[in-house]
Write the structure tokens for this entry.
Amino acid sequence: MSDSACLELDGLAVVDTASGMRLVQGASLRVASGGALSLLGESGSGKSLLAHAIMGTLASGLRAEGGMRIGTHVLDAADQQARQALWGREVALLPQEPWLALDPTMRVRQQVAETHELVAGLPKKDAADAALRDLARLGMRHAAALYPHQISGGMAQRVAFLATHAAGARLLIVDEPTKGLDSGRRADILAMLRAAQAGGMAVLCITHDVWLARALGGQVAVMLDGAIVEQGAAHAVLARPAHACTRALLAADPASWPARTHASAAGAIVARVDSVAKAFGPRTLFAGVSADIRQGEIVAITGESGAGKTTFGNLLLGLLGPDAGTVTRAAGLPRTAFQKLYQDPAAAFAPSITLEAALRDVVKLHGLAWDSVAPLLARLRLGAHLLARLPSQVSGGELQRFALARVLLLKPALIFADEPTSRLDPVTQQETLSLLLDAAGASGCAVLLVTHDAEIARAVAQRQIRLQA
């Protein structure tokens, strides 16, 4: 193994102990001190499993095989316990969901100070002072006394970053750090990772964000079905991809999408907002916003995190009332004609009942015919065999399509799609969004699409409503 590498993997594999199946197939990678390696791939390709194998946090029933070196420590991948002594000191993991990495009962400053105290061994007072300096460096000194629920997703990501590497780990593994963030917050994450590199940290970035991989530079490796199918310098791989999987990922990047062709002019007004305003406590989200939403049109709601995009859609649905102005929905339409597609499909399904039971509940509640389900699932490319599964037993893209099927059963006049694909990889995102818009277009349904991605708004929407925080 190379002396200059901060992380080196030699044939690292992940095996399902019950079946003997190899879920990750002999990965060999190297990340230099101060360097970066971006691991790209579709959902389910094995990227996160590889990260857990490196950290020694594989779930029960999975076993790692092969060799690795982290800093000066040569390790047997099968010995997960040996890696625990390195957590925080040599290797740190920034997980996908920053809020899940933070303690909801602890203030922001405490969360960062705890790593300085318990991992780095600083006295309590020195740890608190160091935490305040860390927060100030990222422009967050004002948030020191706040709790996680009082800060935005981008801020939570920065706090988790500080808490993760406060003890000076030489290797930072980040799992989908820009997922669901707007362009400004993505740039913040990039700046944080570059600062970590400048301080000598090696960064292993697991992502489906081609923009981030290109901006980080360094090396890129592409995974498919548990195997690394292409790797090399980022500028070379992303400019001249050799493998079909890499080419598909690049083609599915929203910046490469062609503008959507809209079949016909918009129809009658489905909903109207007139000079609406909404505030929470002393903070005004937006004011004086007016718009008509018409049958069959696709309208993108854009704006920075915290601008009130979700709140605006909830006003249209009648889930919230405006503080000023009016919201008018077309006469004669039932309340079920206004439907919401959530950002996280798993949160929209009961985890312990099958997908068939979830759909049958809707059919029974609204007096629909079960016979209408099969052709709808076929149109959304969902096999009937998936109905017997729990929500956790299908992919994110499949679950979002089941959520769409449940919405379409009610023949909506308007679908409020709240970042419906931001948690999906580029290929699945493009497919799922196309199915959503095609299905809505076939029924003449209006779509109000919240997106943080300016390229998606450009490619699919007929017009945009931009909210200013």
